[in-house]
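Table S2 (text version). Query chain:
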Amino acid sequence: MGVQSLTVACGALALCLALATAANPGFVVRITQAGLDYAHQHAITVLEKELAQLKLPDISGDFRIWHVGKVQYEISRLSLSSFHLPYSRISLVPGVGLQVSISNAFAELDGNWRVKMHFIRDHGSFDLRVENVYIKIHLKLGSSTSGKPTIDTSACSTRISNVRVHFSGKFGWLYNLFHRAIESRFRKILESKVCESVAKSVRSELQPYAQTLPVTAKIDAMAGIDYSLVAPPTVTAQSLDVDLKGEFFSLAHRSAVPFPPLVLALPPDHDRMVYFGASSYFFNTASFAYHAAGALVFEITNSVIPKGVEFHLNTSTFSAFVPQLENMYPHMEMKVRLSAPSAPFLNIGPDGLSLKPVVDIQTYAILPNSTLAPLFLLSLTGNVSAVIDVKSGHIVGSLKVGRLKLSLKRSDVGTFQVRMLQSIMNVLASNILLPRLNAWPRVLCFPERLAQGFPLPLPDRIQLSNILVGFHQNLLLLGADVQYQPRGRR
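Corresponding structure-token output:
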């Protein structure tokens, strides 16, 4: 009884450890059957070319013919002229991987023959046609220690129903007498060589291409995105799901994110070839990385105010709301420094992306000797929403600021009515701050320029079209069709 209890306890401990080490993804890529069908078309084209280059060995042997005796033969210089795969499909095998089934394939080749019978020697040529070729390929999907996807052939079988050989030459009739033996040898050789070529094509073409999926994507000089796989791809009856870490990190010093990713569940949408699921964790790690790097700081002076805006950042303007500025710092230009005391966190819900940042606004008077005199420190809270789109394989967006609320944290110029500054802050937010945020390289939770966005995890030479943008709880869902651009095309 004690041994049994110990076994149960060890099993429970192992299960707990497994659950503890299993990491939820911050980003998920889903490939639907439509996406697999598209990839399959291009893969079959590559495989046809590989099979058409098969190198077949020479064949030699002997046989006996009644009343004729022993006949020695040699078949050489076998050359494939074509190999066609007209019917094929790719299937999802849940818990296993992918299966490619090819039927009614056919090939044509030619070569030379030689024959020796007693003192008689002759040679000629022959044509061979292989028909009703059936190929079944099983592909195993995994991930490397570096988090890159892997793909390999786990099984392959080839069955050839018909092999037809026609010999020409003076003794061509002799070969046609034993064509069954020759066709049987051809069948065995071809069946073996086809699977060898499939395995080679997967290793030399498919696996290297899968490795072009970026494990990390550099955003700017400060941050990058970790797109490494957290587990091998998951195959279901409807789709192929790839769970990625989906985490922004500092290029200078990577530190652990102080909050875990939540469970990420994609809805059962299958109208597009591929779907990208970005969780709030994905965006909030960006906020954490940039805040930790001290990048969430923004300064406004008169030099950044657009010419068309009738607003001057100086004490004369502000003295209408803070009267004591006129006596303490008359007719001086000002600087406003905005910073986030903590990383702003973004929420994703059915209504879209939103955040409620808290921003410290420190104002300064610029003295004649260019030093700064602190005036007052405000705290600004507000509702900010984001508009999201996809362009050139990048998530792009812009911010919209809603209602703002001000409060005074500290004043170096005495008391004043903070609510009187609300109109000025609205001008700063709508005409100066917001346009700068949407074009500034390091703001809030969006790295690089919001208009340029940041890259989606795409393998080489893939373009997206027919973009769908949807919002769910804790999930930004992007759907798209894909188009593969072969090398040499733009």
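Notes on Table S2: The helical segments are 2-21, 33-51, 172-177, 179-210, 280-292, 315-318, 325-328, 422-437. The mean pLDDT is 85.
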